[in-house]
Write a structure and sequence with these properties.
Strand order of the largest sheet: 3-2-1-4-5-7-6
Pfam families: Methyltransf_11 (PF08241)
Structural class: alpha/beta
Helix content: 40-55%
Order of helices and strands: HHHEHEHEEHEHHEHHHE
InterPro entries: Methyltransf_11, SAM-dependent_MTases_sf
Protein name: Class I SAM-dependent methyltransferase
Keywords: Methyltransferase, Transferase
Oligomer: single chain
Number of strands: 7
GO molecular function: S-adenosylmethionine-dependent methyltransferase activity
Strand content: 15-25%
Shape: globular
Number of domains: 1
């Protein structure tokens, strides 16, 4: 292996280690079960998962889509890069009496054979893999011909997409080649990533109404405590408290613009997308 190739491999290894550490911070289980629990069942239903299917959930986290897929009677494998999330998912599954496989795996290099699964899912998960094309290629590779791929991704113009855009100037520069996660919430980006591999895309922009937070301050406190990407950005600002304060103000202003009317809720846009493996 050349020196340049070795350097690339080592840089990728370090990047994935940072991603693992980021998602292990805070309490993503709380986010999944308290803030976005309805997304997994929506994706499972839209993807037509049934008891006859062999299902892979990529970047499954704590099982937002894996658990409802298992409830249908399907054979389910939940894969994720972060061991702590998989362990939390195992506990949630056990509490519901569900049996499924939990596999430590990189979405950009899945440890499964070609055309292994009838349905491949990812619920606001694979969008955070830094190299979009590599991840898309892997989702398509492990899906059988005529199998289904189902995705839920935050859109660039929705609240979470705007939140990441707001945090970007305050965060360390991303490594070369890494792409912004909310691009996965654009239909044209999906079709480009899966061109020649997955077709018959059905896409729909939907809104998740989030009523977990009473006001922008409550939202900010919750995300600074529980959500790994937000925690990571604030950690990078530990030596510049004035910048942390400025980010506080920007995020609370952003949150105020996405809700907190009479019902104290927020509306978060996402893209629901299903396609068929060519």
């Amino acid at each position: 292996m050349s020196n340049s190739s070795s350097a690339t491999v080592e840089a990728d290894r370090e990047l994935k280690a940072k991603h693992r550490a980021m998602w292990a911070q805070g309490n993503y289980t709380a986010v999944a079960t308290e803030v976005i629990p309805s997304l997994g069942p929506i994706l499972v239903e839209a993807s037509g998962v049934s008891e006859h299917d062999h299902v892979l959930d990529v970047a499954a986290g704590t099982g937002n889509a894996s658990l409802p897929a298992a409830i249908t009677g399907a054979g389910v494998t939940a894969s994720d890069l972060t061991p702590e999330l998989l362990e939390s998912g195992r506990r949630l599954a056990a509490a519901q009496g569900l049996s499924l496989d939990w596999v430590l795996a990189d979405a950009e290099a899945l440890p499964f054979g070609d055309q292994t699964f009838d349905v491949v899912l990812s619920c606001v998960g694979v969008m955070f893999a830094p190299h979009h094309q590599e991840a898309a290629n892997e989702l398509a590779r492990v899906c059988r011909t005529e199998g289904r791929i189902g995705l839920i991704n935050w859109t660039p113009d929705g609240f979470i997409g705007r939140m990441f855009a707001t945090m970007k100037p305050y965060a360390p520069a991303p490594p070369p080649g890494a792409q912004p996660p909310p691009l996965w919430g654009r239909p044209d980006h999906l079709e480009s990533l899966f061109y020649g591999q997955v077709g018959d895309w059905q896409t729909e922009r939907r809104v998740l109404h989030v009523d977990r937070f009473q006001d922008p301050e409550d939202f900010l406190s919750y995300f600074k405590t529980n959500y790994g990407p937000t925690i990571a950005v604030y950690k990078s600002l530990a030596d510049t408290p004035e910048r942390a304060d400025a980010l506080d103000e920007e995020l609370m202003s952003l949150a105020a613009g996405f809700g907190f009317g009479s019902d104290a809720g927020m509306d978060w846009e996402y893209l629901l997308a299903t396609g068929r493996r060519s």
